[in-house]
Amino acid sequence: MQSLKIEVLVGVFLLLSLLCLGFLAVKVSGFSLGKSNDRYLLYSHFEQVGGLTVRSKVAISGVEIGQVLAIEYDQETMNAKVTLEIDSSISSIPSDSTASILTEGLLGSKYISISLGAEDQTLSGGDEIFDTQSAVILEELIGKFLIEQF
Amino acid sequence: MLIHALRRIGRFGFEMLSSMGRALRLLSSALIRRPDHRNIPLIIGQIYQLGVLSILIIVCSGFAIGAVLALQGYTQLVRVGSESALGLGVALVLVMEIGPVVSALLFAGRAGSAVTAEIGLMKATEQLASMEMIGVDPISRIIAPRFWGGFIVLPLLALMFSVVGIWAGSLVAVDWLGVYSGSFWSVMEQGVDFFDHVMKGIIKSIVFGFVVIWISLYQGYDSLPTSEGLSKATTNTVVFSSVWILVLDFFLTLMMFEL
Amino acid sequence: MTRNSIVFDNVSYNFGKKEIFKNLSFEVPAGQTVGIMGPSGTGKTTLLRLMGGQIQPDNGTILVEGKDINKIKRAELFELRKCLGMLFQSGALFSDLTVFENVAFPLKEHTRLNGEMIRYLVLIKLNSVGLRGAAHLFPRELSGGMQRRVALARAMALDPKLIMYDEPFTGLDPIALGVISNLIKDVGSVYECTNVIVSHDIEETARISNLLYVLSEGEIIGQGSPQDLKKDDSPRLKQFLNGLPDGPVPFHYPAPEYLDSLIGVKNTKRTIIKRDD
User: Fold this and answer.
1) Do residue C69 and residue C19 come from a single domain?
2) Does C177 map to a domain?
3) Which residues from B are below 8 Å from A when comparing CB atoms?
4) Inter-chain contact B198–A25, Cβ cutoff 8 Å?
5) C-alpha angle B71/B74/B76, rounded to 5°?
6) Structure confidence at residue B134 (pLDDT)
């Protein structure tokens, strides 16, 4: 009987810690297995990605539709190549849309915002968004401002 | 005088090296062996002893620390008007740092010292020697189940610690201080990444569990079979474990969080 | 035919810088009850640990049941130990197991008997030491003498060929002492197993042994049947057998001159008391 009680308690313990892991995964880190299954990739080149990181969010009108998968330096075009992972339910992004790197709030993290274009043709997996707007670097802005002043 | 000092340093170094050698030998002989199905009930017993019986202290401390983090964080964040980031702050600090570290420290004090005392006493009362004479290897029957038990248990306790802490933080922030619950949870969800933060915290606690249970077993197994020897061994377990946890935490952070 | 259970051949053992045994040679014939006696601190327990292969000698060979205990592999050593039993001075029962489980432990570990069979065997062994009624108790609930009887039952559990006893008579009241010494005698005659008793209790050991060895300062100073030993008149043996406080075995631990120590003369060189034998 003693060993039965111990086994039951150990079982409850293991189950509880599994629940904790689940809580951390779903509630705390917003991790879900379903998301990454059906996604497609888009590419775009930026002059300046300053502050953008892998897993930064990609949004249209502020609504998250995907995330940054990779950021690398492209030797051919001599600027930064960013790979975007877009939820496949968002299938009608016009091919002349613009991708810009914006900041959430004044000091928040960088994310990519896609402003939609007007073309009938839409982007599909592997396509590139040509029209891009680089990240605004606060120091550069301040520098420019100061130079204009004097 | 100088020669005397050098000699002492030399002897200290020699003793440290030889004790590390003995600890390594104990570990390797506990791990490198055929799995024995008779050990499974023993491991379950150890999960009970080391894990289930530690839940209370882990939950209480986790609750207290989570609540304090929320309070302290709130007073700072509210000054710059970003108390919505409180959930994120509490969760990150708990999951990556405080959860693994504090639960490992508590584990060393609560379970590690008990393991050391138990094994030291078994050695002092010749129980280990008599088991050996019966033809059963005490390393596989006594040391190995405790090792696996402790190794499995600590990461689970650290998870519980973090979850209870986050829950306590939400109680303080949302229900008491009036932070908007939507932003508390959604900012947390966006800022915390499962692989970047949660998994790295879990890896930390796996390393800590390995080190703490190893130190505890070695100190017990290597203790002198006297009352002073035993008390020294339990003290050593707590002291060495704590120092190693904190030192390793620094290096693990350095390695994993690409600074 | 004389087969030897244990053979020590020129065994030396040092503990740190202290020489415990030098060139020790003796045999334990199979089926006999052999007593190894000697004053405290002559390394009697060390001797048993050498026999059990728990420590290794610095020199010489030890054969146990025909096998060189320091040359065989670890697995073989554990195999060999199944036919050895050892009774520790403290009993060394597993404190988290009941009396029944303690005696059942070797059976569960080394046999494939089913639960019912093990129960029979354990109860038989416990009955032979008179503690069948205490099967459900924990060791801490028993007296020292009873613990030693349980330990004896556990040592006998696998019907070993050889049982070693570490100081089986110390710390017992006269009744418990009589019980234990009769049990040891029975084990020898009924189970036909070799008994090696290490003790400083001369009378009890002599009463149940066929052969005695007297050990002092790492050497054997006397051997033979109990009757033979009584006739031997070497001074060291006489001192031990008759319990004289001072003699060839000195009363004083090696120390500087008494007077010098008292008046505080600082002797950098230690003067060791010289023995005059």
Assistant:
1) yes
2) yes
3) 41, 44-45, 47-48, 51-52, 55, 91, 95, 156-157, 159-160, 162-163, 166, 185, 188-190, 192-194, 196-198
4) yes
5) 115
6) 85
ipTM for the whole predicted complex goes beyond 0.85: no
Residue C88 lies inside a defined structural domain of this protein: no
Domain residues for the domain of C266 are: 253-277
Q: Measuring CA to CA, which residue among C94, C11, C89 is closest to residue C56?
A: C11
With a pLDDT cut of 90, the percent of chain C lying above it is 0
pLDDT tens digits for C115-140? 888 898 899 888 888 888 888 889 88
Interface test with B, best of A23, A29, A110 (most B CBs within 10 A): A29
Question: Which residue, among B49, C92, B151, B121, has the nearest Cα to A3 in the 3D structure?
Answer: B49
The owner of tokens 């038990």 is B149
**Does the residue C90 lie in any domain?**
no
**Cβ neighbourhood burial of C259 (10 Å; 0-12, 13-18, 19+):** exposed
Q: Is chain C touching chain B, with at least 3 CB–CB pairs below 8 Å?
A: yes
Distance CA C156, CA C160 (A): 6
Asked if C43 and C23 sit in the same domain, the reply is: yes
Whether residue C89 is contained in a domain is answered as: no
Structure confidence by residue, pLDDT tens digits, A96-142:
888 888 887 666 678 888 888 888 888 888 888 888 888 777 777 88
